[in-house]
Amino acid sequence: MKSEFKARPVYLKRDDRIKAHFTTCFMALMIYRFLEKKLEEKFTANEIIDTLREMNLTENLGDGYTPAYTRTDLTDMLHEKFNFRTDYEITKYGTMKKIFKETKS
Q1: Which residues are CB-contacts of 7 (< 8 A; sequence separation ≥ 6)?
Q2: Which of 61, 39, 65 is nearest to 52 (CA)?
Q3: Where are the domains of the chain?
Q4: Whole-model pTM?
Q5: H runs (alpha helix) in the chain
Q6: Who contacts 19 (Cβ-Cβ below 8 Å, separation ≥6)?
């Protein structure tokens, strides 16, 4: 998992920084485990992380956003489990704002 998250050697001396680093790593692991469970353990860590990194959108000024990624079973399941869609031909600005708002609550 360390290589999946692209962790590097960390040289920290102060206790507060060591604790902050540990907390960040622990949270990343918890988020990954949450995703893995939500996706019914059908995908590997590498598949989930690579897919999330590749799920980019391109802004079309005045129209909205178009997906710059290829749909897969994993992207479809992410859309289904987290109740959002970004794989349509164009995702309007208002829809994208709604997706952002829902992720904050």
Answers
A1: 25
A2: 39
A3: 15-104
A4: 0.76
A5: 15-38, 45-54, 73-82, 93-104
A6: none
